[in-house]
Amino acid sequence: MTEPNLDKRTALSEPSPDLGTEPVARRRIFARLFQFDEGGILLAVLLFFLIGTFTNQYFLTLSNLAGILQSMTFLGFLAIGVGLALIAGEIDISVGSVYALAGIVTALLLHNDYPVILAVLAGLATGALCGLVNGVVAQVIDVPAIVVTLATLGVYRALALVLAGGSPVTGMPDAPFFFDTLGQGAVGQVSLITILFLVVAVGAEIVLRNTAFGFRVFAVGSNDIAARLVGFHVERIRLLLLVFSGLMAALSGVCSVAYLHTAGPTGGTGYELTVLAATIIGGVQLTGGRGSIIGVLLGLVVIGIIQNLIVLWGISPSWTQGVSGVVLIAAVTVTWLTRREGGGTRLTVSRS
Amino acid sequence: MAYRKSDTGIDRRTFGKAMALAGSAAAMGFAGGVSPASAAEEDWKAWVKSYYGKPIKMAVTCYNTTNPYFVPTKVGAEDAGAQLGIDLEWTGVPDGNTVSQIAQFQQLVNTGYEAIVVIPLEADAWIAPIKKATDAGVIVVTSNSDSPDSARELFFGQDLVGAAVVQGEMLAKLAGNKGNVALTNCAPGLLALDLRIKGAKEGVTKGGLNVVNVYNTNPSDMASELATIKDIIKANPDLSALMPLCGPDTAAAGLVRKEMNLKQPIVGTDLMYQTLELIKSGDINGTVGQQPYLQGYLPVMYCYQRAILQAPKLELPGGNYFMANEIVTKDNVDTFLIREKRFQG
User: Fold this and answer.
1) pLDDT digit string (tens) for A92-121?
2) Domains in chain B, CATH or no CATH each
3) With contacts defined as CB-CB under 8 Å, which chain A residues touch B100?
4) Do residues B223 and B193 lie in contact, with contact meaning Cβ atoms separated by under 8 Å?
5) Which end of chain A, N or C, is more open, meaning fewer C-beta atoms within 10 Å of its C-beta?
């Protein structure tokens, strides 16, 4: 049996994340119309915008649009971390629990009159540590990340409940910068926390698209065997991304304490599923190697608009998850139809 | 070996047909889920809209729309809305997610709602959002559970401490004024439950009982409720009495007592239909109701007075509109069975 003829130049020189893509001629006309992967989801966002605009007079108001942004902010932090991990071929479903645990740690320290900066750093460190535990077990001990994070989802949630004594942490002292400025502050109609989220998202996209590390993330997610052969530290990259995912969840949890002036141990329950839905709707491939933060943002916008329209149309909130589920199926179907026949998402390895 | 899409055994055409079928079924289910109002209600609403020149919009947002306790509250709010001819939206979250509920609330404020009734979970989290809403001219009241430090105009609900003291004293008397009692809590962190626990402990202690623990329950899942009550019984074999502090907990306690043929007295909370049936059968000794129907009905009526008819604000001590307790035992349960049948789940 001969060795696989792996064209390293194809792997390393191709700027697009589609390593070893199929010829353009084999793409469908629909995909050809859009010069980037997010074209389909952008079209969906525009479609929902049009539907909202023509069905409700309040939809296209600045306050309502700011409200949509606000509603996706806390999930958005989680989605950045989970999206990057997915692109690298990993997964983290413990983010909802990390969100709660980090929030509880921050709130407890504030409740006990520790300085705000210490409370915030402790919350962030909690998230990073949770991500580190996930990463070490998944990458060093080599347990599949889905199993690890499924387990730690329960462990971190239990820790949050135990630390909080089963009920929300309230009675925090006044901390004007943390609660008033960060928590409730805004530039126009856009909250400071939302601005922070957008800054982090833009930063993550820049790193993903324009740095060597970002290229390695795509390489690892696309074909970890090939990536290892060219010298990328696959386990280290994935571990770093799981730490980052934990850090993002913690940042969301800390910001929620500033926003709500309280922290609940059951906060963030179910967030992991909504975040996964947003990333998939946004075009992130579950098997890795494909996606973008822009796509994740657009996926969040779709979910945010759906939830907004449900309120504006006066529909029972019980339909929210069902509608999001239908949109998810539609998004996956469109993605499957436009990326079929190998869709250029995998490195071609030929044996001769 | 060139990479190939894995063979799922299903071709694109069949997949497309399956998706179309699923989409059609979802659309039909969705359409079926939107209940049509009666013609008379629609005529009345149209008249009100033409009279005021615009639809009058009010909303109730609830922190746990899946808790069966809130069924009468929803009906009460919708009844009030129908009688007034306004657009009354019952909304909220199914899982106590305060961030999502506040996001919804802010969308309601931004989209022309004249008044909003808030049923909050985490009291402090609502201080800033309610202030923003009242600054924007929206009338905000709370119901069932309060956010006392917020700018809400009124709280419609029970004097939770006082009611729980009465409940505790009743239970202690039935237990012979001695022994251990276990309490339950279906919403840890909810101010209303914190106050109820405070009153419960005061009542049972005054009556000579000793509180062994307060156990958390899940009111949206009866199987979980039953399991928790059974675990409480197993963990405390010398329990003299059981005091559930939520509606679903009370029904679950009665079912467990019936199943296990226990003798400990139970005086619970709220008037769920199942609880009333268990009182009739003797498996629950009594319950204290807080009028959930009126917790939906009265706030909407008040908000209409304030927002639409420009009535002056009702000045009450602490901004609290306390509703009377309804104490139900085997002696008077028949009346309540007739009244509450409408909300039977």
Assistant:
1) 999 999 999 999 999 999 999 999 999 999
2) 39-158+292-324 (3.40.50.2300), 160-289+327-343 (3.40.50.2300)
3) 71, 307
4) no
5) N
CA distance B287 to B326: 8
B320-323 and B267-269: which strand pairing?
unpaired
Segment 98-157 of chain B within 8 Å of chain A by CB: 98-100, 102-104, 106-108, 110-112, 121-125, 127-128
Residue A312 scores a pLDDT above 80? yes
> How many C-beta atoms lie closer than 10 Å to residue A25's C-beta?
6
Q: How far apart are CA A70 and CA B121, in angstroms?
A: 20
Radius of gyration of chain B (CA): 23
ipTM for the assembly: 0.78
Chain A residue whose CA is closest to B128: A184
Could you write out the three-class secondary structure of B26-38? HHHHHHHHCCCCC
- What is the number of other CB atoms lying within 10 angstroms of the CB of residue B149? 12
In this predicted structure, the answer to whether residue A9 has a pLDDT above a threshold of 50 is no
Task: Characterize the bridge pairing of strands B180-185 and B239-243.
Answer: parallel
Q: Which of B:52-81 have CB within 8 Å of A?
A: 65
Bridge partner residues of B267 (DSSP): B286
Tokens standing for residue B161: 């401490």
User: Can you tell me the distance from the alpha carbon of A87 to that of A230, in angstroms, rounded to the nearest whole number?
Assistant: 19
CB contacts of A262 in chain B (<8 Å) are 98, 122, 124-125
Q: Does B12 touch chain A (CB under 8 A)?
A: yes
Which amino acid, one-letter code, is at A152? T
Q: pTM score, two decimals? A: 0.81
Of A58, A318, A333, the CB nearest to B111: A58
Cβ contact, residue pair A166, B106, below 8 Å: no
Phi then psi for residue B243, to 5 deg, are -125, 90
Strands (E), A211-273: none
Residues B340 and B270 sit within 8 Å (Cβ to Cβ): no
What is the mean pLDDT of the segment spanning B213-238? 92
CATH of domain A8-338: 1.10.3470
How many Å lie between the alpha carbon of A135 and the closest alpha carbon of chain B? 28
Closest by CA to A206, choosing from A217, A216, A214, is A214
Question: A349 and B1 in contact by Cβ < 8 A?
Answer: yes
B216/A166 touch (CB, cutoff 8 Å), yes or no: yes
**What's the rounded Cα separation, in Å, for the pair A24 and B337?**
71
Contacts of B339 (CB under 8 A, 6+ apart): none
